[in-house]
Amino acid sequence: MKKLLLVIATALSLTACASLNQARLMQSGAKAMQALSITDNDIKGYVRQSVAQLDAQNQIISSGNYVTRLNNITKGLTEVNGTPLNFKVYKNNEINAFACADGSVRVYTGLLDVMSDEEARGVIGHEIGHVAMQHTLNAYKVSLFSSAAMDVIASTGNTAAALTDSVLGQLADQMVNAKFSRKQESDADDFAYSFLVAQGRNPYYLAMAFEKLMSTSQNGTPTQVSSIANLFSSHPDTQSRINSVTKKAESDGYTRPAK
């Protein structure tokens, strides 16, 4: 918010420059002012549209073992900090899962293939943590404000302006591949730890999930190795995460599960 105000102030201060392109200034100012008026609910509305496009583009598994497992893993998870949660499985060999600001959580079959239910629960807890702490909401805001969508919104003066499938698709791709800061990733790890404890689960499983990812990154298929590299590109060092969770679990009196 402060950055947007600074942009507006800077733009207005430049009006004294004779060489300034006034049309571009007015357009920039309109976009900045429109961005300031967009609420979190407006953002979530656009997120829902992007999620709908992702769902249409991917093969959603509606029955069978994967769905049974996901239902078991997420049983009782209906909301986080007032945001309703919904879960679906994408048939995709990549090892991935992501959560969106509207509470949509998507899990790839590739992740369920290499992890136990308990380990997958830890990963899903991590993704839900990004929603709870509004990391996903803020990442989508950045993508929206820097996209062609703001031209549409500013030109119509309507924060609920309809966006093209192309723009929604670009925002959807950025949402799936969102990069969070190392602190945000560490905070999401802490959330996942507490999430498991609150569910009466052994938080050691979070460390075991990281171990599984590290092992697969070294011995998995090319698709698995590539997807894990992308998944962890902005994360803290995997071994450090394992050590951190293990130390905390031992301090809290937990013992490592047999499997």
Report on this structure.
This protein is of the alpha+beta class and about 260 residues long. Helix content is about 65%, strand content about 5%. A 4-stranded mixed β-sheet has the order 1-4-6-5, sandwiched between helices. A two-stranded antiparallel ribbon has the order 2-3. The protein is globular, with a radius of gyration of 21 Å. The protein starts with a helix and ends in an 8-residue tail after the last helix. The relative contact order is 0.12. Residues about 1-35 have low confidence and may be disordered.
Radius of gyration equals 21 Å
Strand content: 5-15%
Low-confidence stretches: 1-34
Overall residue-averaged pLDDT value: 81
Main-sheet strand order equals 1-4-6-5
SS field, number of helical segments = 13
Coarse structural class: alpha+beta
What characteristic shape results from the CA principal axes?
Answer: globular
Q: How many runs of DSSP E, i.e. beta strands?
A: 6
Gap from first CA to last CA? 47 Å
Task: Give a nutshell description of this structure.
By secondary structure, the chain is of the alpha+beta class. The chain is 64% helix and 7% strand.
Keywords:
259 residues; alpha+beta; four-stranded mixed beta sheet; two-stranded antiparallel sheet; 13 helices
Set down the secondary structure blueprint.
Layout lengths: L1 H12 L8 H16 L2 H18 L2 E2 L3 H9 L5 E2 L2 E2 L1 E5 L6 E3 L4 E5 H6 L2 H16 L2 H11 L3 H8 L8 H12 L5 H17 L5 H16 L2 H10 L6 H14 L8
Parallel strand pairs: 4-6
Antiparallel strand pairs: 1-4, 2-3, 5-6
